[in-house]
Amino acid sequence: MASSSLWQPLTLGGLELPHRLALAPMTRNRANPDGTPGELAAEYYRQRASLGLLITEGTQPSEDGQGYVNTPGIYTPEHVDGWRRVGDAVHAGGGHLFVQLMHVGRISHPDNTPHHRQAVAPSAIAPGEEIFTPTGKQPIPAPRELSVSEIQQVIGEFRHAAASAIAAGADGVEIHAANGYLLHQFLSPNANHRTDSYGGSVEHRARFVIEVARAVADEIGADRTGIRVSPAFPLGGLDEGDTEAVRAQYRYLVGELAPLKLVYLHVHHLGDDELLRSFRDVWPTAVLVVRYGRERDGVAADIDAGLADIAPLGRFALANPDVVERLQQDAPFNEVDPATLYTGGATGYTDYPVLAHV
Fold first, then answer.
1. What per-residue confidence (pLDDT) applies to 293?
2. What is the number of structural domains in the chain?
3. Residue 93 needs a FRET pair 20 to 30 A away by CA distance; which of 79, 128, 184, 237 works?
Protein backbone atom coordinates (compact mmCIF):
# COMPACT_ATOMS: atom_id res chain seq x y z
CA MET A 1 0.00 0.00 0.00
CA ALA A 2 1.43 3.36 -1.06
CA SER A 3 1.75 6.23 1.42
CA SER A 4 -1.56 7.27 2.96
CA SER A 5 -0.89 10.86 1.89
CA LEU A 6 -1.75 9.84 -1.69
CA TRP A 7 -5.31 9.02 -0.76
CA GLN A 8 -6.31 12.34 0.78
CA PRO A 9 -8.89 14.26 -1.30
CA LEU A 10 -8.02 17.72 -2.63
CA THR A 11 -9.98 20.70 -3.90
CA LEU A 12 -8.36 22.06 -7.06
CA GLY A 13 -10.11 25.21 -8.21
CA GLY A 14 -13.69 24.10 -8.75
CA LEU A 15 -12.80 20.41 -8.87
CA GLU A 16 -12.91 17.83 -6.11
CA LEU A 17 -10.12 15.32 -6.61
CA PRO A 18 -10.39 11.92 -4.87
CA HIS A 19 -6.65 11.57 -4.23
CA ARG A 20 -3.24 13.13 -4.95
CA LEU A 21 -2.36 11.30 -8.17
CA ALA A 22 -2.71 12.66 -11.71
CA LEU A 23 -1.89 11.70 -15.28
CA ALA A 24 1.22 13.50 -16.50
CA PRO A 25 1.17 14.86 -20.06
CA MET A 26 2.78 12.46 -22.53
CA THR A 27 3.05 12.81 -26.31
CA ARG A 28 1.71 9.71 -28.11
CA ASN A 29 1.59 10.80 -31.80
CA ARG A 30 -1.80 9.29 -32.53
CA ALA A 31 -3.87 12.25 -33.71
CA ASN A 32 -5.36 12.31 -37.20
CA PRO A 33 -3.34 14.14 -39.88
CA ASP A 34 -5.44 17.30 -39.39
CA GLY A 35 -4.65 17.36 -35.66
CA THR A 36 -8.00 16.03 -34.47
CA PRO A 37 -7.64 13.55 -31.60
CA GLY A 38 -7.78 10.04 -33.07
CA GLU A 39 -10.60 7.60 -32.54
CA LEU A 40 -8.65 5.78 -29.82
CA ALA A 41 -7.85 8.90 -27.80
CA ALA A 42 -11.20 8.92 -26.01
CA GLU A 43 -10.66 5.31 -24.98
CA TYR A 44 -7.07 5.93 -23.87
CA TYR A 45 -8.04 8.76 -21.54
CA ARG A 46 -11.25 7.05 -20.39
CA GLN A 47 -9.21 4.04 -19.28
CA ARG A 48 -7.20 6.33 -16.99
CA ALA A 49 -10.09 8.39 -15.60
CA SER A 50 -9.56 6.98 -12.09
CA LEU A 51 -6.43 9.15 -11.87
CA GLY A 52 -8.82 12.04 -11.24
CA LEU A 53 -6.86 14.84 -12.89
CA LEU A 54 -5.78 13.97 -16.43
CA ILE A 55 -3.38 16.35 -18.19
CA THR A 56 -3.36 15.63 -21.89
CA GLU A 57 -0.50 15.24 -24.29
CA GLY A 58 0.94 18.47 -25.67
CA THR A 59 -1.65 20.09 -27.96
CA GLN A 60 -0.70 22.82 -30.41
CA PRO A 61 -2.57 26.16 -30.31
CA SER A 62 -1.84 26.89 -33.99
CA GLU A 63 -0.22 25.50 -37.12
CA ASP A 64 3.06 27.13 -36.11
CA GLY A 65 2.83 25.37 -32.75
CA GLN A 66 3.20 21.87 -34.19
CA GLY A 67 6.56 20.15 -34.02
CA TYR A 68 5.97 16.44 -34.41
CA VAL A 69 3.93 14.21 -36.70
CA ASN A 70 0.37 13.37 -35.62
CA THR A 71 0.15 15.55 -32.54
CA PRO A 72 -3.26 17.04 -31.70
CA GLY A 73 -4.39 20.63 -32.05
CA ILE A 74 -7.03 22.73 -30.32
CA TYR A 75 -7.70 25.60 -32.70
CA THR A 76 -10.27 24.39 -35.29
CA PRO A 77 -13.92 23.29 -34.95
CA GLU A 78 -12.84 19.74 -35.84
CA HIS A 79 -10.31 19.76 -33.01
CA VAL A 80 -12.98 20.95 -30.60
CA ASP A 81 -15.31 18.13 -31.65
CA GLY A 82 -12.55 15.57 -31.20
CA TRP A 83 -11.59 16.81 -27.75
CA ARG A 84 -15.27 16.90 -26.78
CA ARG A 85 -15.41 13.13 -27.32
CA VAL A 86 -12.34 12.75 -25.12
CA GLY A 87 -13.74 15.00 -22.39
CA ASP A 88 -17.10 13.24 -22.40
CA ALA A 89 -15.38 9.87 -21.98
CA VAL A 90 -13.21 11.11 -19.11
CA HIS A 91 -16.15 12.72 -17.34
CA ALA A 92 -18.23 9.55 -17.74
CA GLY A 93 -15.41 7.74 -15.92
CA GLY A 94 -15.40 10.26 -13.08
CA GLY A 95 -12.23 12.10 -14.11
CA HIS A 96 -11.33 15.69 -15.01
CA LEU A 97 -9.47 16.83 -18.13
CA PHE A 98 -6.89 19.59 -18.57
CA VAL A 99 -5.60 20.14 -22.11
CA GLN A 100 -1.89 20.97 -22.23
CA LEU A 101 -1.26 23.87 -24.62
CA MET A 102 2.13 23.27 -26.23
CA HIS A 103 3.73 25.54 -28.81
CA VAL A 104 7.01 23.89 -29.78
CA GLY A 105 8.72 26.98 -31.17
CA ARG A 106 11.97 25.95 -32.85
CA ILE A 107 11.58 22.20 -32.10
CA SER A 108 9.95 21.52 -35.42
CA HIS A 109 10.52 20.71 -39.07
CA PRO A 110 8.61 21.95 -42.12
CA ASP A 111 7.91 18.34 -43.12
CA ASN A 112 5.94 17.83 -39.90
CA THR A 113 3.57 20.80 -40.10
CA PRO A 114 0.43 21.43 -42.18
CA HIS A 115 1.81 24.63 -43.76
CA HIS A 116 5.43 23.44 -44.21
CA ARG A 117 6.79 26.82 -43.10
CA GLN A 118 9.93 27.67 -41.18
CA ALA A 119 9.52 27.36 -37.41
CA VAL A 120 9.31 30.43 -35.18
CA ALA A 121 11.25 31.18 -31.99
CA PRO A 122 12.52 34.04 -29.83
CA SER A 123 15.73 34.16 -31.91
CA ALA A 124 16.92 32.61 -35.18
CA ILE A 125 19.06 29.96 -33.45
CA ALA A 126 18.85 26.27 -34.32
CA PRO A 127 18.81 23.86 -31.35
CA GLY A 128 21.54 21.63 -32.79
CA GLU A 129 19.39 18.50 -32.56
CA GLU A 130 17.55 16.10 -34.84
CA ILE A 131 13.83 15.39 -35.10
CA PHE A 132 11.77 12.52 -36.49
CA THR A 133 9.97 13.33 -39.75
CA PRO A 134 7.96 11.19 -42.17
CA THR A 135 11.20 10.41 -44.00
CA GLY A 136 13.26 9.66 -40.92
CA LYS A 137 15.46 11.72 -38.61
CA GLN A 138 16.56 15.11 -39.91
CA PRO A 139 18.49 18.04 -38.41
CA ILE A 140 16.20 20.72 -37.00
CA PRO A 141 16.63 23.81 -39.18
CA ALA A 142 17.12 27.31 -37.83
CA PRO A 143 13.84 29.04 -36.91
CA ARG A 144 12.67 32.53 -37.80
CA GLU A 145 12.73 35.18 -35.07
CA LEU A 146 9.28 36.38 -34.02
CA SER A 147 8.60 40.10 -34.32
CA VAL A 148 7.01 41.91 -31.38
CA SER A 149 3.69 42.06 -33.23
CA GLU A 150 3.92 38.34 -33.98
CA ILE A 151 4.53 37.64 -30.29
CA GLN A 152 1.21 39.33 -29.60
CA GLN A 153 -0.40 37.10 -32.23
CA VAL A 154 0.99 34.00 -30.52
CA ILE A 155 -0.43 35.19 -27.20
CA GLY A 156 -3.77 35.50 -28.99
CA GLU A 157 -3.39 31.93 -30.26
CA PHE A 158 -2.96 30.68 -26.70
CA ARG A 159 -6.05 32.63 -25.67
CA HIS A 160 -8.08 31.16 -28.54
CA ALA A 161 -6.82 27.63 -27.83
CA ALA A 162 -7.77 27.92 -24.17
CA ALA A 163 -11.27 29.07 -25.09
CA SER A 164 -11.51 26.21 -27.57
CA ALA A 165 -10.53 23.68 -24.90
CA ILE A 166 -13.26 24.93 -22.59
CA ALA A 167 -15.72 24.88 -25.51
CA ALA A 168 -14.78 21.22 -25.97
CA GLY A 169 -15.77 20.50 -22.37
CA ALA A 170 -12.31 20.39 -20.82
CA ASP A 171 -12.07 21.41 -17.18
CA GLY A 172 -9.02 23.58 -17.79
CA VAL A 173 -5.70 23.94 -19.59
CA GLU A 174 -2.04 23.65 -18.71
CA ILE A 175 0.32 26.18 -20.30
CA HIS A 176 3.47 24.33 -21.32
CA ALA A 177 6.40 26.59 -20.39
CA ALA A 178 8.83 23.69 -20.04
CA ASN A 179 10.82 20.94 -21.73
CA GLY A 180 12.57 22.99 -24.39
CA TYR A 181 9.53 24.40 -26.19
CA LEU A 182 8.62 27.98 -27.14
CA LEU A 183 7.93 29.52 -23.73
CA HIS A 184 10.96 27.76 -22.27
CA GLN A 185 13.03 29.04 -25.20
CA PHE A 186 12.16 32.62 -24.24
CA LEU A 187 13.41 31.91 -20.70
CA SER A 188 16.73 30.44 -21.82
CA PRO A 189 19.61 32.85 -22.57
CA ASN A 190 21.21 30.55 -25.15
CA ALA A 191 17.99 30.44 -27.22
CA ASN A 192 16.87 34.02 -26.60
CA HIS A 193 19.34 36.63 -27.88
CA ARG A 194 16.75 39.39 -28.21
CA THR A 195 17.64 42.95 -27.27
CA ASP A 196 14.06 44.24 -26.98
CA SER A 197 11.63 43.94 -24.07
CA TYR A 198 11.38 40.15 -24.55
CA GLY A 199 15.07 39.36 -24.07
CA GLY A 200 18.24 40.22 -22.21
CA SER A 201 17.38 40.52 -18.51
CA VAL A 202 15.69 37.99 -16.25
CA GLU A 203 12.61 40.21 -16.26
CA HIS A 204 12.47 40.56 -20.04
CA ARG A 205 12.99 36.85 -20.72
CA ALA A 206 10.08 36.05 -18.39
CA ARG A 207 7.74 38.58 -19.98
CA PHE A 208 6.32 36.37 -22.72
CA VAL A 209 5.48 33.54 -20.31
CA ILE A 210 3.77 35.95 -17.93
CA GLU A 211 1.77 37.57 -20.73
CA VAL A 212 0.59 34.19 -22.01
CA ALA A 213 -0.49 33.19 -18.51
CA ARG A 214 -2.37 36.45 -17.98
CA ALA A 215 -4.13 36.15 -21.33
CA VAL A 216 -5.22 32.56 -20.75
CA ALA A 217 -6.37 33.25 -17.18
CA ASP A 218 -8.28 36.30 -18.42
CA GLU A 219 -9.96 34.19 -21.12
CA ILE A 220 -11.04 31.13 -19.11
CA GLY A 221 -10.37 31.97 -15.45
CA ALA A 222 -7.32 31.44 -13.25
CA ASP A 223 -9.12 28.54 -11.56
CA ARG A 224 -8.98 26.69 -14.90
CA THR A 225 -5.39 27.62 -15.80
CA GLY A 226 -2.30 25.67 -14.73
CA ILE A 227 1.29 26.14 -15.89
CA ARG A 228 4.27 23.82 -16.23
CA VAL A 229 7.94 24.76 -15.81
CA SER A 230 11.16 22.73 -15.89
CA PRO A 231 14.04 24.74 -14.42
CA ALA A 232 17.46 23.80 -15.85
CA PHE A 233 16.05 21.05 -18.05
CA PRO A 234 18.52 20.79 -20.98
CA LEU A 235 15.97 19.59 -23.52
CA GLY A 236 15.80 21.05 -27.00
CA GLY A 237 19.36 22.33 -26.84
CA LEU A 238 18.63 24.75 -23.99
CA ASP A 239 21.21 25.87 -21.44
CA GLU A 240 19.86 28.15 -18.73
CA GLY A 241 23.19 28.74 -17.04
CA ASP A 242 24.52 27.81 -13.62
CA THR A 243 22.45 27.09 -10.52
CA GLU A 244 22.28 30.69 -9.38
CA ALA A 245 21.22 31.91 -12.83
CA VAL A 246 18.45 29.32 -12.95
CA ARG A 247 17.28 30.21 -9.46
CA ALA A 248 17.20 33.91 -10.29
CA GLN A 249 15.17 33.33 -13.47
CA TYR A 250 12.60 31.03 -11.95
CA ARG A 251 12.21 32.76 -8.61
CA TYR A 252 11.36 35.90 -10.54
CA LEU A 253 9.02 34.07 -12.92
CA VAL A 254 7.14 32.16 -10.24
CA GLY A 255 6.99 35.25 -8.05
CA GLU A 256 5.35 37.21 -10.88
CA LEU A 257 2.94 34.38 -11.72
CA ALA A 258 1.88 33.77 -8.11
CA PRO A 259 -0.43 36.84 -7.86
CA LEU A 260 -2.42 35.52 -10.83
CA LYS A 261 -3.58 32.66 -8.56
CA LEU A 262 -3.42 30.09 -11.34
CA VAL A 263 -4.94 26.81 -10.23
CA TYR A 264 -1.62 24.98 -10.10
CA LEU A 265 2.12 25.09 -10.75
CA HIS A 266 3.46 21.90 -12.35
CA VAL A 267 7.20 21.46 -11.87
CA HIS A 268 9.18 18.98 -13.93
CA HIS A 269 11.89 18.71 -11.33
CA LEU A 270 15.60 18.00 -11.73
CA GLY A 271 16.41 17.95 -8.04
CA ASP A 272 17.08 21.49 -6.79
CA ASP A 273 14.88 21.14 -3.71
CA GLU A 274 15.91 24.57 -2.43
CA LEU A 275 14.43 26.13 -5.55
CA LEU A 276 11.34 23.93 -5.32
CA ARG A 277 10.86 24.98 -1.69
CA SER A 278 11.04 28.64 -2.72
CA PHE A 279 8.23 27.99 -5.21
CA ARG A 280 6.19 26.31 -2.50
CA ASP A 281 6.68 29.28 -0.18
CA VAL A 282 5.17 31.82 -2.60
CA TRP A 283 2.72 29.78 -4.68
CA PRO A 284 -0.84 30.26 -3.37
CA THR A 285 -2.50 27.18 -4.85
CA ALA A 286 -1.54 23.58 -5.66
CA VAL A 287 1.95 22.45 -6.65
CA LEU A 288 2.44 19.36 -8.83
CA VAL A 289 5.89 17.76 -8.97
CA VAL A 290 7.12 15.05 -11.34
CA ARG A 291 10.67 13.71 -11.46
CA TYR A 292 12.42 11.48 -14.01
CA GLY A 293 13.28 8.06 -12.66
CA ARG A 294 10.95 8.19 -9.67
CA GLU A 295 10.27 4.65 -8.50
CA ARG A 296 7.07 3.22 -7.10
CA ASP A 297 8.04 3.66 -3.46
CA GLY A 298 8.91 7.32 -4.12
CA VAL A 299 5.63 8.45 -5.70
CA ALA A 300 4.47 10.17 -2.51
CA ALA A 301 7.90 11.46 -1.39
CA ASP A 302 7.40 15.10 -2.44
CA ILE A 303 3.91 15.17 -0.91
CA ASP A 304 5.20 13.68 2.34
CA ALA A 305 8.04 16.26 2.36
CA GLY A 306 5.58 19.13 1.96
CA LEU A 307 6.98 20.05 -1.47
CA ALA A 308 3.94 19.04 -3.52
CA ASP A 309 0.19 18.51 -3.34
CA ILE A 310 -0.17 16.18 -6.34
CA ALA A 311 2.12 13.55 -7.89
CA PRO A 312 1.55 13.20 -11.65
CA LEU A 313 2.40 9.76 -13.05
CA GLY A 314 4.03 9.20 -16.44
CA ARG A 315 5.26 5.76 -17.48
CA PHE A 316 3.42 4.02 -14.63
CA ALA A 317 0.10 5.40 -15.87
CA LEU A 318 0.95 4.86 -19.53
CA ALA A 319 1.44 1.10 -19.03
CA ASN A 320 -1.16 0.66 -16.29
CA PRO A 321 -4.62 2.11 -16.99
CA ASP A 322 -5.59 0.94 -13.49
CA VAL A 323 -2.47 2.32 -11.79
CA VAL A 324 -4.56 3.75 -8.94
CA GLU A 325 -5.95 0.31 -8.12
CA ARG A 326 -2.53 -1.29 -8.46
CA LEU A 327 -1.02 1.18 -6.01
CA GLN A 328 -3.88 0.69 -3.56
CA GLN A 329 -3.57 -3.10 -3.73
CA ASP A 330 0.23 -3.23 -3.95
CA ALA A 331 -0.22 -5.15 -7.20
CA PRO A 332 2.60 -5.49 -9.76
CA PHE A 333 2.91 -3.02 -12.62
CA ASN A 334 2.97 -3.68 -16.35
CA GLU A 335 6.21 -2.50 -17.95
CA VAL A 336 6.23 0.13 -20.70
CA ASP A 337 6.97 -1.13 -24.21
CA PRO A 338 9.27 1.59 -25.63
CA ALA A 339 8.84 0.30 -29.18
CA THR A 340 5.14 1.27 -29.24
CA LEU A 341 5.25 4.70 -27.61
CA TYR A 342 4.83 6.67 -30.85
CA THR A 343 3.87 4.09 -33.48
CA GLY A 344 0.14 4.76 -33.80
CA GLY A 345 -2.80 2.41 -33.36
CA ALA A 346 -4.05 0.54 -30.31
CA THR A 347 -0.90 -1.47 -29.70
CA GLY A 348 0.95 0.01 -26.75
CA TYR A 349 -1.82 2.61 -26.36
CA THR A 350 -5.14 1.11 -25.30
CA ASP A 351 -4.21 -2.58 -24.98
CA TYR A 352 -2.24 -2.64 -21.73
CA PRO A 353 -3.96 -5.21 -19.45
CA VAL A 354 -5.79 -4.31 -16.26
CA LEU A 355 -5.73 -6.42 -13.11
CA ALA A 356 -8.88 -8.38 -13.93
CA HIS A 357 -7.22 -9.59 -17.13
CA VAL A 358 -3.68 -10.24 -15.93
1. 83
2. 1
3. 79
